[in-house]
Model the fold of this input.
Amino acid sequence: MGKHVGIVLVSHSPAMAAGLRELLTELGSDTVPVALAAGTEDGGLGTSYDLIVRAVAEADGGAGVVVLPDLGSSVMTARTALEDHPRSGAVLVDAPFVEGAVAAVVTASAGAALAEVVGAAEEARGFRKF
Done:
């Protein structure tokens, strides 16, 4: 089986990110690597530069990595981590956290290339629920 684009969830909340990863694992049939950079090093609320760097490396199987931050400082911390530790194919994506992650995983699980996965996550901003 070919390589799939990986997903990194950057969240202030370890519990929220773990719950989203549980959903994504079901949707991605365990074929899409989903790594967490959630909370602080000691498990508290916040974001961690070091956790982001490790999660990007963990999710990178060679097809690229989509990095999805939840809000505020997670965006700034992820941006800084990616600038300090550039990795070919690691893309910080401006997308809604849950909907963007779902769209990215579903698209990646079909074997789509990085650009398509990024586009799917970004397009999730326009999804209507009703």
About this structure: The radius of gyration is 13 Å. The chain has a mean pLDDT of 94. Residues 101 and 121 are 6 Å apart (CA to CA). The first strand starts at residue 6 and ends at 11.
